[in-house]
Amino acid sequence: MPSKPTPATGAPAGLMPAADIPPFFETLRAANPHPTSELAYTTVFELLAAVLLSAQATDVGVNKATRKLFPVANTPQKILDLGLEGLEGYIKTIGLYRSKARHLMEACRMLVEQHGGEVPRTREALEALPGVGRKTANVVLNSAFGMPTCAVDTHIFRVGNRTGLAPGKTPLAVEQQLMQRVPDAYLVNAHHWLILHGRYVCVARKPQCWKCPVATWCRYQPKTPPP
Question: Which residues contact 190 (CB under 8 A, 6 or more apart)?
Answer without folding.
Answer: 25, 150, 178, 182
